[in-house]
Amino acid sequence: MTARTPQLRKKTARELAEKFGVSPRTIRNHVAAPRDWWAQHRREIRQKAARLRATGMTWAEVGKALGVSESAARALGKRATGEWADGGQKRTERDPNTRDLFGSPDHAKRAG
Q1: For residue 25, is it left (φ>0), alpha (ψ between -120 and 50) or beta?
Q2: Which phi and psi (to 5°) does residue 74 adopt?
């Protein structure tokens, strides 16, 4: 079951459950936001982060404007612009300057 008119809530499910004498899960079922609405809402926030950054704001300023941390703002903006098109993976290639502690031949020689 989803809410007919989705809106952001000011009380937690636990608070409402205590007030009405039901379980928090019952409250969540009754007030759940439809998935398509939530996806659109998140898309708008990502786009807003990218727009704010494009105006010259720092990621810290973008985060403050959106009510999230600096790193969350950076992630939102980069997902909006496609920099993290793979869903958030920051690095796909291995850094050649780090040692492979478990797969290198040197490790096998030392361990044996």
Answers
A1: alpha
A2: -60, -45
pTM of structure: 0.49
Is residue 51 domain-resident? yes
Residue 107 lies in a domain: no
Residue with tokens 């205590």: 18
Residue 53 is assigned to a structural domain of this protein: yes
CA angle 96, 100, 103 (to 5 degrees): 130
Task: Write the burial class of residue 103 (CB in 10 Å: 0-12 exposed, 13-18 middle, 19+ buried).
Answer: exposed
Report the 3 state secondary structure along 9-70: CCCCHHHHHHHHCCCHHHHHHHHCCCHHHHHHHHHHHHHHHHHHHHCCCCHHHHHHHHCCCH
Domain containing residue 59: 13-84
- Count how many domains the chain has: 1
Specify whether the CB–CB gap between 74 and 59 falls below 8 A: yes
pLDDT digits (tens, 9 = 90+) for 47-90: 999 999 999 999 999 999 999 999 999 999 888 888 765 554 55
